[in-house]
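Reviewers of the previous submission asked for a worked example of the structure-prediction workflow described in the proposal, so we include one complete record here. The input consisted solely of the amino acid sequence. No template or homolog information was supplied to the procedure at any stage.
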Amino acid sequence: MKITTETVDPGASTNVKLRLWPGVVAAALVVIGLLAGLLLPAAMEEGRWAGLFGSMIGTLAIFLWWLFFSRVRWAERLGVMAALIAAWIAMRPLLDPSILGGAMGALPVLGFTVFAVALVIWAAAARDASAGVRLGSAVVAMVIAAGFCTLVRTAGMNRGFEFHWRWTPTPEDRLLAQGNDDPAPANALKELPAAKPHTDSVSSSAAIAGDPLQPDAEKPAEWPGFRGAYRDGVVRNVRIETDWARFPPVELWRRPIGPGWSSFAVNGDLLYTQEQRGDDEIVASYRLSSGKPVWRHRDRVRFWESNAGAGPRGTPTVSNGRVYAFGATGILNALDAASGAVIWSRKAASDAEVEVPTWGFSSSPLVVDDLVIIAAGGRPAAYDIATGQPRWLGSDAGFSYSSPHLMTIAGVPQVLLLTGRVATSIAPGVGTPLWQHEWQGGAIVQPAVTEDGDVLINSISGMGGAGIRRLAVTRGPDGGWTVEERWTSTGLKPYFNDFVVHKGHAFGFDGSILSCIDLTDGKRKWKGGRYGSGQLLLLADQDLLLVLSDEGELALVSATPDEFKELARFKAIEGKTWNHPVLVRDILLVRNGEEMAAFRLETAQTRETSKWRGR
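From that input alone, the workflow returned the following structure tokens.
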């Protein structure tokens, strides 16, 4: 028998028979999932998230294939994985801050998806090379993958992540590039009330005033602040035309605005809102009729976090000739409503001895008698409206992005604050708790009151709503309070989208879909229409919801329990839109972190006026 021998090169590729097809299949799954997550229309929100989840499953499959089913030598398997992990670790400090902090710090993990696809592409390209060449080229492939990850940024989340190239300007960058459009200084400012100009050493620049408009300080503002006079999102004594095919909203003006999630306060021809421009947090006044700036007050602070972006979260409150505004870093300002001049200012976060929450302070100031009340996170605090001096400070009951809410129960005025651990009712004059109800979770939206005096609260869980709970609150003969849970419903689960109460039903968001529940038992009546993380108003006089989607689309929806019925739809503004709309008389105000606009809605009154002018 003849025996032949053959010298084998240990580094030759003939010793390695790479099984490639499982990696290719998994990489295809990753790519399809990413394309679905990024390119599917917003209406297919579940498809977007399913795509992203599928891409993560595909990424795991690629790593399992490489480590256990690729058939290459263990030294090469482990060497390539070591190069991949080393490149990922080295990449992290170079990532854009929006990526590094995205999804509460979890977004960089998605970088492994890019590395996984790069691994498969490299394996296919280098399959016939020697082991040494393969390992060296693997290092190069991982460095290229890491470099790609450092070239992108995110504009936050809205039905998924919004990715952009790192070098492309943000809407705020484009606004700042237009130059300073502050209104020209006024020749004379309104005489201020007798009050200390600053009661705490907050470093604030003087207001930049334009043509000062004297608001009627004696007359209550038509829309004094967050969600209206009662913070319930209800518009009364207004009826609009619902046939938008014949009578569409008419644009009055549109202008860019700095980022922020504030809504509007309106008094006469002045509107007030908050925004961020560079390193300045701004309280601003504009003309309702034209959108032209009247004045801006600037504080040299900036709040930013990756998921929701930059800017203030609260909405100003206008009362008796003054504007009260609470910024995202905890500065509370009292400003003259006509000129923006500072009356007093407080570092409320320092007063309350609390840190700035993850998503910033979001409370909108509440004026009750001679007090202005805020929530510094989950800690309520009250200040004297004349001087800004602290009057009382409540206890910290867990994080909260909700605002103090004035309501009357059993004839007793009280301020209700929802926090992460408990709903607390407070006697506004002294700050002492009247009653409490525990519900662990979190708080973002406002409570509500039913027509027969019960209280509706909500809680959140993880990245969504946990449901609505109805409480019966009674006061005994001895003055003590009793709280009884009537029901808890998961038929309506608002996250940061406020709901409204109308004729024995609640209307709001269940995830991204509009829903109606019966307040008798909490059971769902209908669910329909996809508006994302939108907001809504109730036009009570005509059983109508005015819904603003998170992509800037307006919709009219019937506020009846029979069925979901969308009556009209209209594209109002561009960009991610989480801000609450406002309707004053026949003027609708909408905004987001990029632009704001005003529209005239046809009403019976405007129609008659048009006929009269046409004669």
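The chain has nine helices and 38 strands. We consider this example representative of the routine output the project will generate in years two and three.
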